[in-house]
Specification:
13 helices; alpha/beta; D-Maltodextrin-Binding Protein, domain 2; five-stranded mixed beta sheet; single chain; 3 domains; about 325 residues; four-stranded antiparallel beta sheet
Length: about 325
């Protein structure tokens, strides 16, 4: 076609969503709606932040709208109230909320606790006489919030060693601030999550690592999933599916490029690279049911739930995950 567009160029333009005649975005492309989801900002090693730094939200139909700093203990309440649409908080908090009637659900697996990259670490001062769990009675522990991993995993570990959970005291502070009360002596043990745990790991002059959640239970308690507000998911199912795809893509990249991933998170939060620890993530972001059942059983044992009060299907779904295959 002399002076005109070839068939192949017209097809290419159509695939790219552009007008074949004038090279102007067509109406459908120009009016493409981007679904935004309210998400918190906090110092944490998070796939949402990593995906954003990698540019995965740039041309996506879904992206985060940051709702400001929200304390860890307020994230699930904020999800329930609608101030957040998506949150990355630990499974027992979601189980307890759903059991109380909250319209929220786990939709992506998030981080996976491994031997090399555990979910949380237990630190003491280097001059501490504490050598292990047997020395915990009578001590004060620093945790980031009640009702989640730090509290319940520790209490179970005490019970498994014939110790009374009531013999310890717990006080809360953000992960990024746990070193200060430990150095002051306000706490004798600090339980810290990535990326902030890297700062204590690197400071061997002041801190000594006792053990991690992996040492306690092989990682079964350490999955930290993503949950979504029910109304948001029902109104935006395709956006939730696309978000899972972005999370999975970022998870694979993180696991395959550990040093580059740490560098991005260190830069984002102005951490020194050598003081930045990271998570491993489930690559397909499919939620494994045994990890949900563990926490239901744990909350029943803690008398926070009645036996049979809730089942895993009420807490999580893989329905939005493109990798999910029904039996």
């Amino acid at each position: 076609m002399r002076g005109g567009k070839t068939v192949s160029s017209i097809l290419l333009a159509a695939l790219l969503g552009w007008s074949g005649v004038y090279g102007i975005p067509d109406a459908a492309a120009a009016q493409k709606q981007v679904v935004e989801f309210n998400y918190p900002e906090w110092v944490y090693y998070d796939l949402i932040y990593l995906a954003e730094d990698l540019g995965y939200f740039k041309d996506a139909g879904v992206r985060p709208r940051y709702a400001g700093q929200i304390p860890a203990g307020q994230m699930i309440p904020s999800l329930i109230s609608g101030d957040l649409d998506v949150a990355n908080r630990h499974t027992p908090l979601v189980v307890a909320a759903v059991a109380s009637g909250a319209d929220i659900k786990i939709f992506a697996a998030g981080s996976e606790s491994t031997k090399d990259f555990p979910h949380m670490k237990y630190f003491v001062r280097t001059d501490s006489e504490i050598k292990g769990i047997k020395d915990f009675p009578g001590k004060t522990l620093g945790i980031n919030s009640f009702g989640a991993c730090s509290e319940y995993v520790t209490k179970k570990y005490l019970l498994d060693n014939g110790l009374d959970p009531a013999s310890i005291k717990m006080i809360t502070a953000p992960d990024s601030q746990q070193e200060t009360p430990l150095l002051r002596g306000d706490t004798q043990v600090a339980i810290i999550h990535p990326l902030a745990s890297g700062r204590a790991s690197a400071n061997q002059r002041d801190f000594r690592l006792l053990f991690s959640d992996w040492d306690i239970d092989g990682g079964v308690s350490g999955m930290c999933p993503y949950s979504v507000r029910g109304a948001f998911a029902r109104e935006n199912p395709e956006a939730v599916r696309e978000l899972i795809g972005i999370l999975s893509r970022a998870a694979v990249w993180n696991n395959e490029h550990p040093e580059e991933a740490r560098r991005l998170m260190a830069k984002r939060f102005n951490f020194k690279l050598e003081e930045t620890e990271r998570f491993e993530f489930f690559p397909d972001q499919l939620t494994p049911e045994p990890y949900i059942q563990y926490w239901i059983d744990r909350l029943v044992a803690e008398k926070k739930l009645s036996p049979g009060q809730i089942i895993p299907d009420q807490v999580y779904t893989n329905e939005y995950n493109p990798a999910f295959r029904k039996n």
